[in-house]
Amino acid sequence: MIELGIYLGVNEFCDILRERGLTPYKSLAIISSLILGLNAYFQSHLFTVITITALVIVVAFAELFRKKKEEAIFHLSGTVFGVIYVAWLFSHLILLMQMPNVLEPLTYKNIFGIPIRLGTSLALLPFVLTWTNDSAAFFVGRKIGKRKFFPSLSPKKTWEGVIGGAIATICAAFIYHYLYASYLSWFDCLTLGIGVGILAPIGDLVESMIKRDVKIKDAASTIPGHGGFLDRFDSLLFAAPLIYYYLRFFAVR
Q: Residue 17's domain spans which residues?
């Protein structure tokens, strides 16, 4: 499923670049992105480096033979950035799911006595925190929002919404710990809640910046009622790496 998400996200990003008048190397971007996902699944860090290196060299070589040489730097950088922005960041969900293979296999029981795989619990955590943040920020901002957060990119976002979303995210982390992630300490919940509360809005703003530059409202129409894949998971792209690296080095032992 995550590989499907990577495919959809990279495909949408390349289409966005085409709306901007650029010609990214879509096939190369998709192939490289799917390989990055597989590398994450097998914990092949060396092959991840090789994949990114090969992508840069191959698209640069291909650009030499393009008939129109104008805006070559944009074709090249757009392709490589799309792969890293979507595929590499999103593949951290796979790294989270595979983390028990790096640390130790662990199955434990939650408060309902249901056996739960650590990998499943870890992979769901970014979704719970980012979606809580997005939803709470929307409702709080809609009800009491007055002070604009970043009007040049997202006129509807307010400081009240951002703060409300962060508080809700911290609460969600503690609830998730209680129901589904007993391996987290109260400090882990607080840190992750604050971190996601900061990075999730930034991830949303980055995608808004890209769409505003292209002058489109939605990245695509992949998900009915929600726009494209990137519209729904833009916050997750920034939150998933934060959660992975924090858990990998500071929380899960």
A: 1-90
- Does 96 fall in a domain? no
Strands (E), the chain: 107-109, 115-117, 148-150, 154-158
Distances in Å between the Cα of 142 and the Cα atoms of 65, 151, 198 are 51, 15, 19
Non-local CB neighbours of 183 within 8 Å, separated by 6+ positions: 106, 108, 118, 121, 251, 252
Per-residue tokens: 161: 């919404």
- 73 and 114 inside one domain: no
Please write the tens of the pLDDT for every residue from 63-76: 998 877 788 899 99
Quote the pTM value. Answer: 0.88
Query: Is residue 53 a part of any domain in this protein?
Result: yes
Alpha carbon of 211 to those of 111, 204, 250: distances in Å? 43, 11, 35
Q: What is the mean pLDDT of residues 137-152?
A: 88
Number of compact structural domains in the chain: 2
AA letter at 56: V
Mean pLDDT of the chain: 87
Nearest to 76 by CA among 28, 10, 34: 28
* pLDDT at residue 221, rounded to an integer: 61
